[in-house]
Amino acid sequence: MKKIVKTREVSSFLFLIALFAVVGLINPSFLTSENIISCFNDSVVYIIISVGMAFAIFIGEIDVSVGANLGFTATVVASMLRDGQNWALAFATGILIGALIGLFNGWGVSVMGVPSLIFTLGTNGVMRGMMYVYTQGAWVENLPADFKQLYSAELFGHISVIFVVTVIMVIAVHILLKHTKRGRYFIAVGDNPAGAALVGIPATGTRVAAYVICGIFAAISGIVFASRIGFVTAMSGNGYEMKAVAACVLGGISLSGGVGSVIGASIGAVIMASISRLLVFMELGSTYDNTITGVMLITIVVADALMQRRNAEKNRRQRLAARTAAAGEGGNK
Question: Which long-range contacts (CB under 8 A, 24 or more apart) does 161-168 make?
Answer without folding.
Answer: 162/44, 162/224, 162/227, 163/40, 163/41, 163/43, 163/44, 166/44, 166/47, 166/48
